[in-house]
């Protein structure tokens, strides 16, 4: 996942606690080595041991020079509050404990003050926190850049693109309840004052096969469950959906329908709001939901084996009514 910035002008050991105790306390409460470049000896075992020791004290970030390594804590930590953003704003990257805010600030100020295009590359295995890291970076940029009606509108569009992209591109896997099944390249454009004025989001490598089949214990893309859980009766009736994921073949074969850590109904409301903010019209939103409903119904169509006259294998549709039901909710754009 790439997140470029481009100028268009041309407990007491918790690092957050340390931020409010002064610069000296930061070093006193630091566990292990905050920059792996300073490890002695510099070996893989020493690096892993240092990461583990820091992780035990909720210090999930560690530098390797100007690279920050993060370990997903799989819990909410008080590391991303507005007052923490202010602590890292316009500070030297090594003044405070390692944090993704420091990397974000370094890139943002280099772009704004030195007119240098920047690119933050987020890499890691499934479940490592790449999606959340991109949200944190965008949150930081939105907070430290300028204000104004047009600027705030662009910021809101950039931030609200996340729930929409996740709904149609993320899914629960065996290792991650919100795993991105696609690649994302986000190009945020700024004016000469460092205020965001637009952006381009490019998606690639979408795991389309997941729509038709999932491994045991995994789920389809979030949007299907969100629509069924969050759609009101009027909407579901208009789409001719039952509201029960168990009724649809594309959702009920993997043995995983509901996830305790995921609120599908609430997320559906965020998706609808996000679509409105980023510019979808009411009719376009309706068309998208009709397409989602049609896909769900297509999964209920059954096929029977048939032998062709020439000796090849073929099939016949066992329930033609399923075709009719699916077509009724499909917009003309199908």
Automatic annotation (TrEMBL):
Domain of life according to the entry: Eukaryota
GO molecular function: actin filament binding; ATP binding; microfilament motor activity
SUPFAM superfamilies reported for this sequence: P-loop containing nucleoside triphosphate hydrolases (SSF52540)
A Pfam family annotated for this UniProt entry: Myosin_head
Keyword Nucleotide-binding attributed: yes
Gene Ontology BP terms: actin filament organization; actin filament-based movement; endocytosis
Membrane spanning residue stretches: none
Residues where ATP binds: 124-131
Presence of the UniProt keyword ATP-binding in the record: yes
Ranges in a coiled coil: none
PROSITE patterns on file: MYOSIN_MOTOR (PS51456)
InterPro entries in the record: Kinesin_motor_dom_sf (IPR036961), Myosin_head_motor_dom-like (IPR001609), P-loop_NTPase (IPR027417)
SMART domains given in the database record: MYSc
Gene3D superfamilies hit by this protein: Kinesin motor domain (3.40.850.10)
GO terms for cellular component: cytoplasm; microvillus; myosin complex; plasma membrane
Keywords annotated in UniProt: Actin-binding, ATP-binding, Motor protein, Myosin, Nucleotide-binding
Ranges for domain Myosin motor: 31-334
Family: Belongs to the TRAFAC class myosin-kinesin ATPase superfamily. Myosin family.
Name of the featured protein: Myosin motor domain-containing protein
């Amino acid at each position: 996942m790439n997140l470029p910035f481009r100028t268009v002008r041309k407990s007491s050991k918790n690092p957050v606690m340390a931020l409010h105790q002064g610069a000296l306390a930061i070093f006193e409460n630091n566990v292990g080595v905050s920059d792996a470049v300073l490890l002695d000896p510099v070996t893989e075992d020493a690096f892993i041991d240092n990461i583990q020791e820091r992780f035990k004290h909720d210090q999930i970030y560690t530098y390797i020079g100007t690279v920050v390594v993060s370990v997903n804590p799989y819990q909410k930590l008080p590391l991303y509050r507005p007052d923490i953003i202010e602590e890292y704003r316009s500070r030297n990257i090594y003044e405070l404990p390692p944090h993704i805010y420091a990397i974000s600030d370094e890139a943002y100020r280099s772009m704004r003050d030195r007119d240098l295009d920047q690119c933050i590359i987020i890499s890691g295995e499934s479940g490592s926190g790449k999606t959340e890291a991109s949200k944190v970076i965008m949150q930081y940029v939105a907070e430290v850049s300028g204000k104004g009606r047009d600027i705030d509108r662009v910021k809101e569009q950039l931030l609200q693109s996340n729930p929409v992209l996740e709904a149609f591109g993320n899914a629960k896997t065996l290792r991650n309840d919100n795993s991105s099944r696609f690649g994302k390249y986000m190009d945020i454009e700024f004016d000469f004052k460092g205020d965001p004025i637009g952006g381009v989001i490019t998606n690639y490598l979408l795991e389309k096969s997941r729509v038709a089949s999932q491994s045991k214990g995994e789920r389809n893309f979030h949007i299907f469950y969100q629509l069924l859980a969050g759609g009101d009766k009027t909407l579901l009736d208009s789409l001719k959906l039952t509201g029960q994921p168990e009724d649809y073949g594309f959702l009920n074969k993997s043995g995983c329908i509901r996830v305790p850590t995921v609120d599908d109904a609430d997320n559906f409301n965020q998706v609808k709001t996000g679509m409105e903010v980023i510019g979808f019209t009411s009719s376009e939103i309706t068309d998208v939901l009709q397409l989602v409903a049609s896909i769900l119904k297509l999964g209920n169509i059954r096929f029977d084996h048939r032998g062709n006259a020439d000796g090849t294998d073929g099939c016949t549709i066992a329930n033609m009514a399923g075709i009719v039901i699916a077509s009724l909710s499909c917009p003309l754009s199908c």
